[in-house]
Design goal:
Shape: globular
CATH class of the largest domain: Mainly Alpha
Number of strands: 0
Distance between the termini: 24 Å
Order of helices and strands: HHHHHHH
Radius of gyration: 14 Å
Helix content: over 70%
CATH architecture of the largest domain: Orthogonal Bundle
CATH superfamily of the largest domain: NusB-like
Number of domains: 2
Strand content: under 5%
Largest sheet: none
Length: 130
């Protein structure tokens, strides 16, 4: 999520540079988990490759909220959630939504978690993910 957030701010950085910066910010947490690195790369690449479709789906289901009016954190948490719902069938719907809500609680504002929960739940219903 932090890499996608950073890419919105600095597109010259590129996906790898944004991911490296996000990992570097957490170097004090110990060595990087190789599986987490692979998963993060997959999410970033997937979100970037499908961004127009993801953003369209978010806008279609976010009543009275244009994408550019959403907080950048919320927007990027939603993008990850929508990508997982649509393109990662091995991840259950409930896990995707719960993880997105936890990210919103950690990084968003007071209303972020409920906003993201409701919106991803609506979107999940349209992509037929159980």
């Amino acid at each position: 999520m932090q890499a996608l957030y950073q890419l919105e701010n600095d597109t010259k950085l590129g996906p790898q540079g944004a991911l490296d910066a996000a990992w570097t910010a957490h170097d004090d947490e110990g060595p990087r988990d190789p599986a987490a690195d692979v998963f993060a790369r997959e999410l970033i690449a997937g979100v970037q490759a499908n961004l127009p479709d993801i953003d369209k789906l978010i806008e279609e289901h976010s009543h009275n909220w244009r994408l550019e009016r959403m907080q950048r954190i919320d927007r990027n948490v939603l993008r990850i959630g929508v990508f997982e719902l649509k393109h990662m069938p091995a991840i259950p719907r409930k896990v995707t939504i719960n993880e997105a809500v936890e990210l919103a609680k950690t990084f968003g504002n007071e209303g972020s978690s409920s906003f993201i929960n409701g919106l991803l739940d609506r979107i999940a219903g349209t992509v037929n993910k159980a």
